[in-house]
Amino acid sequence: MLRIAVPNKGAISGPAMAMLHEAGYRQRKESKELVLVDPTNEVEFFYLRPRDIAIYVSSGRLDIGITGRDLLLDSGAEAEEILQLGFARSTFRYATKPGTATGPKDFDGMTIATSYEGIVAKHLAEEGVDASVVHLDGAVETAIELGVAQIIADVVETGTSLRNAGLEVIGEPIMTSEAVVIRRTGADAEDPKVQQFLRRLQGVLVARSYVMMDYDCRVEHLERAVALTPGLESPTISPLHHEGWVAVRSMVASKEAQRIMDDLYELGARAILTTAIHACRL
């Protein structure tokens, strides 16, 4: 069986399990379940602490895992990302009290508190900064107020927690993160079980991003209509019973669907419909 690590809690856990369910895999119903076997799909899921997933995957005990890019890089594990999943996006930034510093060039001799010691230490080395890094688990916003550090480095989603603590973001982003699928560095890239798993998740990503659009169009306007809805390869076109009309079917990006419908209507197309895509293989 393919052995897959899934976060057991945190911002990635819920969306990851939802995506796996959409991809046709069984998922746990109770948070106490640590292992779930899906015999139909020949997959075994292990629900682990998000920070540990890269370590387990790099050891070869598990084939692949879902985790955050930030957690992967911070772990220093011999693992690599092989698919971006498009959720749990965040930015890793420095923050401090106003007037303390404007960026890494001012950090010499200071102490930086973070839960991501590996990422911060590497970034400081790249910037040539001589600063100390102290590791704290959990929220680090209070580290400055309590005198543990002058700077913090943390994941920033909305910035609300930082503002509430009287802190401001400084400097350029250290990195951007999102949920990713990872595997051990050097693992067989053509493993058919892994490839099938990736195709399923890619199918979910496409299904979430596209809709199927159907409409009727006069033949003389067809070329302009097709230019609006080119599809992935090309649209499907079928003649209608009424001479001079054709039916067109094409995949379009869901975020563009309303605008495209307006443009098609202005062009003379009618019976314009969009349908959600629940699964696909491209």
How is this structure best described in words?
The protein is of the alpha/beta class and 282 residues long. The protein folds into three domains: 1-85 and 176-205, D-Maltodextrin-Binding Protein, domain 2, CATH 3.40.190; 89-174, Periplasmic binding protein-like II (D-Maltodextrin-Binding Protein, domain 2), CATH 3.40.190.10; 209-274, Alpha-Beta Plaits (2-Layer Sandwich). The protein contains nine helices and 15 strands. Strands 2-3-1-4-11-5 form a six-stranded mixed beta sheet. It has a five-stranded mixed beta sheet with strand order 8-7-9-6-10, covered by helices on one side. Strands 13-14-12-15 form a four-stranded antiparallel beta sheet. A hairpin with a 4-residue loop joins strand 2 (35-38) and strand 3. Helix 3 crosses helix 4. The protein is globular.
